[in-house]
Design goal:
Blueprint: H1 4-39, E1 49-54, E2 69-79, E3 84-94, E4 97-108, E5 113-121, E6 129-135, E7 141-147
Antiparallel strand pairs: 1-2, 2-5, 3-4, 3-6, 6-7
Amino acid sequence: MIKAETKKIIKSSLFFEILFVVIALLIIFSGNIKTQLYKWDLLPHPETFTELYFENHTLLPTKVEAGEPYTFSFTTHNLEYKTMTYTYQIQIQDGSRKTTIQKAKFTLNQNQKKTIKETFTAPQLSNRSMVAVDLTNKNNQQIDFWITE
């Protein structure tokens, strides 16, 4: 007959074997479980966004002369948790008149930044005008600054 101590050891051993199998199965299928929990909104989703800002905003041109070149830089930082292609447009709005300075696209991986240096020739302005950088494919996310002659 099996002693009580031996029965305890066998039960304990069986428990650990089952526990090991369960843990192994969880590890194997954890990606699927995690995906399903995200679909059911039982796990928090990371906040996704794109940063758009001027580099050294204190050096942005404010007073301009028609025909003269001016430079500014802006940065886009991808925090969307996926690779993004950004379409941007830079315009000067003088009253109801809009002048497009630049239109372009670029692609950023997650957590990647890109700084774009832009030079424009100031047009003849009728009054205070806005220089705007617009991410057109991001619900028109925009930054701007004002210039006058």
